[in-house]
Write a structure and sequence with these properties.
mainly alpha
Length: 172
């Protein structure tokens, strides 16, 4: 049960971090926003490692080089997220991200890639993946249709609903 709660909390934190990073990316640019995210994250992790958790620095010499690419992949993930979230919205982004994560995870499990235990694909898992894929297609088909403040009509292409616009329409 604890693992399920931690996984759910991680999901909440992931969405929150994506939204904060997208706002940062909107302010400074997607790649610079990713750089700031990772610099701040590295400083935070450094503090935790130095003053909190026990570091096994001697173990680093035996780690396969491919495992160190995670940080580079993280930079690309955050930079792409910063750009895409603003273009498609949080819901569609999360659905597509989750679909990519689940499909990749299913392959890693099935083939036991990167030293993970091998967990066979079953018909029930395939059905679940197919349903997830169908759900993603439904969300994707609906797309992002911003609403013009104060109406139910779709906003003109390229416009964005803002808090100020909502407040202004509510006051009139």
């Amino acid at each position: 049960m604890l693992y399920a709660l931690l996984a759910a909390a991680n999901g909440v934190l992931t969405v929150m971090s994506r939204m904060v990073n997208a706002a940062l990316g909107r302010s400074v640019g997607s790649l610079p926003g990713s750089m700031v995210n990772h610099l701040v994250g590295a400083l935070g992790a450094g503090v935790v490692v130095l003053f909190g958790w026990q570091a096994r620095l001697e173990a680093w010499t035996s780690v396969p080089w491919i495992y160190f690419t995670g940080g580079c992949l993280g930079v690309l993930v955050v930079a792409a997220s910063n750009y895409v979230v603003r273009a498609v919205g949080a819901t569609l982004f999360a659905v597509l991200l989750l679909l990519g994560q689940i499909l990749t995870s299913a392959l890693i499990d099935h083939f036991g890639w990167m030293g993970e235990i091998q967990i066979a694909m079953t018909p029930m898992k395939l059905l679940g993946l197919a349903l997830l894929f169908a759900g993603a297609l439904l969300v994707l088909a609906d797309g992002r249709r911003p609403v013009t403040p104060g109406t139910d009509a779709p906003a003109p292409e390229g416009s964005r609903r803002t808090h100020e616009a909502s407040a202004g329409s509510a006051a009139s």
